[in-house]
Structures are given as C-alpha cells and as structure tokens.
C-alpha cells in the first residue's frame, strides 16, 4: 500500500448510493436545473446518467416523496413539488427532538425571534380584510379566556389559531410553516405554562395577546419594530 493510502477504505454500501442519488437531485434543484413543477428524468434515464441501479434511483425517489420534495402523478411521471409542506419540515422536527444539550432553551429563543418577525411582517402586509379575520379570531380567543371556567384544550386551540392568523397575515408561506412547526415542537411546554397562567395569572394571557393584536392593527412597521419585543414576555415560553 502506498504512503498516501494508509487509511482503511470502506466499500460503498447500497444506502450510500441511494443518498448519493438524493444529493445529485438536490444539487440539481439548488442550482436551478430542476425547478418546482418540473418533471424529473425517468427512472431509466437517471439510472443511466448517474450510473447506478434503477433500484437505487427508485429508493431515492421514495425518500424524496416521503420528504414532500417530489410527487408522483399517475400516468404522468414524477415532479418537483411546488410550495412548502409539513412533510418537508418533519425531518427538522426529529432533528430538534433528538438534539443533545440545552435544546429547549435554543428552541424557545428561536420561537421568540419568529413571533417577533411574524408581527413585523403582519404589520407590513396587513389589509382590512385580513384584519377583520384576525379580529374574529382574537375575540373568540378572549371570550374563552374571560369565561368563568375556561377549557385548557380550547384555550390552546384558540391560542394557536390566533398566532397562525398573524403568520397568515405576514403573507409569507415559510413563516406560516415554521410557525406551525414551532407550535408542534413546543406543545407540551406551552400547555404546561398556559395551565399555570390560567390558574394564577390569566390577566397576563389577556393583556399580552391584546397587546399583540393591537400591535398588528395599529402598528406602523417603521416605528414599532423596536417596541415589538416588549409584547412577548420571555417567561411565557417556560423555563
């Protein structure tokens, strides 16, 4: 063995070939050679151009379909999906769930950043029609909060509806999907914190969401950006 070959070479397994096919297709998409809505080459064409087995191509396509990147249309072929879907974010959910260390602190800080960004975009892109929809969602939420015995489950549902409505007003699909992802990842902790606030500090829930609503309705993105962080109290997310 030559001096430069002192390390051990490992055979390339079938799984490595499959992920190489995925990498090649991903690179074609990031380079703009394959765009949303485009039909990708056939299984045979990909097998020949990448010099891999058709089975490897088939497995790679299955994985990308599961991730929501590709979609198979019967009698038409396989296409690059348009838009962002929850399927695309699922791998990120698992990655965050299994992150070692202080992952919840990082997630909490990230959620605060996203909510503030959503507020800024909502202020910028609001319309009378969108504000009317937000008003209805907000009033439904407050009505449950001021009830004599509010339901935790209903409060959680209406809380999510309120924040997702703001994300929708932001007019940014990525913002909507990331917001939905963060609500999914923080469900357990938010439920715990909301339960405590309903029992001991319901006024804060009402006040904070009222201020958030008013920031969207009356805010001017040019003058309110420096004040928006005050709307969201850090301990709302739990420790």
On the 0 to 100 scale, the average pLDDT is 83
- What structural category characterises the helix and strand content? mainly alpha
Distance between the termini: 57 Å
Q: What do we call the CATH homologous superfamily of the largest domain? A: GntR ligand-binding domain-like
Q: Label the CATH architecture of the largest domain.
A: Up-down Bundle
**CATH fold call of the largest domain:** Four Helix Bundle (Hemerythrin (Met), subunit A)
Principal-axes geometry comes out as elongated
Please tally the β strands and state the result. Answer: 2
Sheet with the most strands, sense and barrel status = 2 strands, antiparallel
Strand content: under 5%
Q: How much helix, percentage-wise, in residues? A: 55-70%
| Low-pLDDT segments | 1-12
User: What integer value in Å does the Rg equal?
Assistant: 24 Å
Number of alpha- plus pi-helical segments: 11
Query: Helix-strand pattern, N to C?
Result: HHHEEHHHHHHHH
At the first level of CATH, what is the class of the largest domain?
Answer: Mainly Alpha
Describe the SSE topology.
Blueprint: H1 14-30, H2 43-50, H3 54-66, E1 70-73, E2 77-80, H4 86-97, H5 103-125, H6 128-145, H7 152-169, H8 173-185, H9 187-200, H10 202-218, H11 221-224
Antiparallel strand pairs: 1-2
């Amino acid at each position: 063995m030559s001096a430069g070959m002192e390390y051990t070479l490992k055979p390339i397994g079938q799984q490595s070939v499959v992920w190489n096919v995925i990498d090649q297709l991903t690179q074609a998409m990031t380079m703009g050679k394959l765009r949303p809505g485009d039909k990708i080459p056939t299984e045979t064409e990909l097998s020949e151009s990448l010099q891999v087995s058709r089975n490897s191509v088939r497995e790679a396509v299955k994985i990308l379909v599961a991730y929501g990147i590709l979609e198979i249309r019967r009698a038409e072929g396989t296409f690059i999906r348009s838009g962002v879907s929850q399927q695309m974010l699922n791998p990120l959910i698992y990655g965050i769930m299994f992150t070692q260390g202080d992952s919840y602190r990082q997630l909490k800080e990230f959620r605060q950043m996203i909510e503030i960004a959503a507020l800024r975009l909502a202020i910028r892109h609001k319309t009378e029609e969108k504000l009317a929809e937000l008003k209805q969602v907000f009033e439904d939420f407050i009505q449950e909060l001021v009830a004599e015995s509010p339901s935790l489950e209903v409060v959680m549902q209406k809380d999510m509806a309120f924040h997702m409505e703001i994300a929708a007003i932001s007019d940014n699909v990525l913002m909507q999907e990331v917001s939905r992802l963060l609500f999914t990842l923080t469900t357990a902790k938010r439920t715990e914190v909301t339960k405590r606030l309903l029992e001991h500090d319901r006024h804060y829930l009402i006040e904070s969401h009222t201020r958030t609503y008013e920031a969207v309705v009356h805010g001017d993105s040019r003058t309110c950006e420096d004040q928006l962080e005050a709307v969201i109290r850090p301990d709302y997310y739990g420790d």
